Amino acid sequence: MADQSIVSALILGLIEGLTEFIPVSSTAHVVLAGHFLGFESPGNAFAVLVQLGAILAILAVYAAKLIQIAVTLPSSPRSRRFVFSILLAFLPAAVIGALAHGFIKSVLFETPALICVVLIVGGVILYAIDKLPLAPRYRDAMDYPPSLAFKIGLCQCLAMIPGTSRSGATIAGALLMGTDKRSAAEFSFFLAMPTMVGAFALDLYKNRDALSSDDVLLIAVGFAAAFVSGLFVVRSLLDFVSRRGFAPFAFWRIAIGTLGLIALWLYG
């Protein structure tokens, strides 16, 4: 049973890293896969805690740019505005996530059918937005004004509903507000850093008494898998989005949501 749990943790970690930064909802994939694998985690802590691997993956890929921003922060108004915009965009999710944490984890995360429906609905919306003849006004994430960043942060709050996708909500909102596809995805990357660190810290604190030494091993396995698969996605996503847009992810969401509902109906 222990070996089976480790294999499940490895699979779930790979799924986390592969889906965290694309608009398909990593939480939905990890929760649904865990449900059908029979993988149990106190308060669904595993689904959030393995995100640390994905966080480190994006930090590794963007290390040079982050260092450049930090070095130029005292002298560059552009760097200061960008950091302020990211923190401003993070604020709504931080407040709502802290206040509604119990309801989100105990009710929404425990409803696989709801997650499947949200995947399908979100896929339809993402496809529709991807096909709109939008005229981008912003093509560099570093130049987003704070007001735009805050609105994107409000969109991110929709991801409190499992299946919505944090990156999907932020990217879709950004596109509708005048950004191009590549910069929308990159801004979502940067916004993921404080958001995921905050979610990780909150879940670790909330589940500190429920986690055992066995859970630590499973989380470590999931973390390593999420780091490796996350590196691959972060390094390739921007070029993919520039060429193909977001329609492939929309079709994937609809397919997974539909298969999930069928599997729930057949197997419970």
From TrEMBL:
<keyword id="KW-0472">Membrane</keyword>
<feature type="transmembrane region" description="Helical">
    <location>
        <begin position="250"/>
        <end position="267"/>
    </location>
</feature>
<comment type="function">
    <text>Catalyzes the dephosphorylation of undecaprenyl diphosphate (UPP). Confers resistance to bacitracin.</text>
</comment>
<comment type="similarity">
    <text>Belongs to the UppP family.</text>
</comment>
<keyword id="KW-0378">Hydrolase</keyword>
<keyword id="KW-0961">Cell wall biogenesis/degradation</keyword>
<feature type="transmembrane region" description="Helical">
    <location>
        <begin position="187"/>
        <end position="205"/>
    </location>
</feature>
<feature type="transmembrane region" description="Helical">
    <location>
        <begin position="43"/>
        <end position="62"/>
    </location>
</feature>
<keyword id="KW-0046">Antibiotic resistance</keyword>
<dbReference type="Pfam" id="PF02673">
    <property type="entry name" value="BacA"/>
</dbReference>
<dbReference type="InterPro" id="IPR003824">
    <property type="entry name" value="UppP"/>
</dbReference>
<feature type="transmembrane region" description="Helical">
    <location>
        <begin position="82"/>
        <end position="103"/>
    </location>
</feature>
<keyword id="KW-1133">Transmembrane helix</keyword>
<protein>
    <recommendedName>
        <fullName>Undecaprenyl-diphosphatase</fullName>
        <ecNumber>3.6.1.27</ecNumber>
    </recommendedName>
</protein>
<keyword id="KW-0133">Cell shape</keyword>
<keyword id="KW-0573">Peptidoglycan synthesis</keyword>
<keyword id="KW-0812">Transmembrane</keyword>
<dbReference type="GO" id="GO:0050380">
    <property type="term" value="F:undecaprenyl-diphosphatase activity"/>
</dbReference>
<keyword id="KW-1003">Cell membrane</keyword>
<feature type="transmembrane region" description="Helical">
    <location>
        <begin position="217"/>
        <end position="238"/>
    </location>
</feature>
<feature type="transmembrane region" description="Helical">
    <location>
        <begin position="109"/>
        <end position="129"/>
    </location>
</feature>
